[in-house]
């Protein structure tokens, strides 16, 4: 018997990266999946998002575990799209027990004329998109349901992002959105506790996904180089973590999501869980 056997999980951003990993890991432990992803690029971003083919691959991987999956293209910024996808999934799978609000983008290094749009797209996806996913799901959740959202260690580190990143509004928006959703989940967990619905945040450090490999991210880690490559960025990654690793794998985050979604965490709510290889500890010691 799996750790989430018989449960149904709603996963946003499920076409690749962490979202796909979460969907597959939950499916391996017995959950059926309702998966959504935007599956098209945004003009303000300087890297490609997932494709419809990526979402089809997630479907294949989940079905290979023996679990069922309903997958649709949907933009988390659009509540009507989420509502349609979720209601279709529930109609076919019968219920909803778990929400994993994973969909996220980063708008670093946008062109000057796209700076404001990058801010809007990142805030709309990483913060408003989480609110949309959670509030679309809430009417369908009962006792012992679990809400898990993806934050970032950036949200745990008190910084002055405008001074740190200058006019890079898309980069600033990422940090601000993650800080806001952390506060949102704290308040939501308090509100939902009497209903025995739990809400928690997982805060990853660098995760080995397409976002980490994107050119804007690489340039942010190696601004000293005119044309940095992945290998150059990897050399800079370990300085962020106390443990001697450049990044963690998606499954490392998925295992935390699985725990929080399972009955093993039935009394765990309002937690800000860092899976960061000691990144926060290193930052704290440096700034103490």
From TrEMBL:
It comes from the Bacteria. CDD domains: SDR_c. GO terms for molecular function: oxidoreductase activity, acting on NAD(P)H, oxygen as acceptor. Pfam families: adh_short_C2. InterPro entries: NAD(P)-bd_dom_sf (IPR036291), SDR_fam (IPR002347), SDR_subfam_1 (IPR023985). Keywords: NAD, Oxidoreductase. Belongs to the short-chain dehydrogenases/reductases (SDR) family. This is Mycofactocin-coupled SDR family oxidoreductase. It comes from Amycolatopsis acidicola.
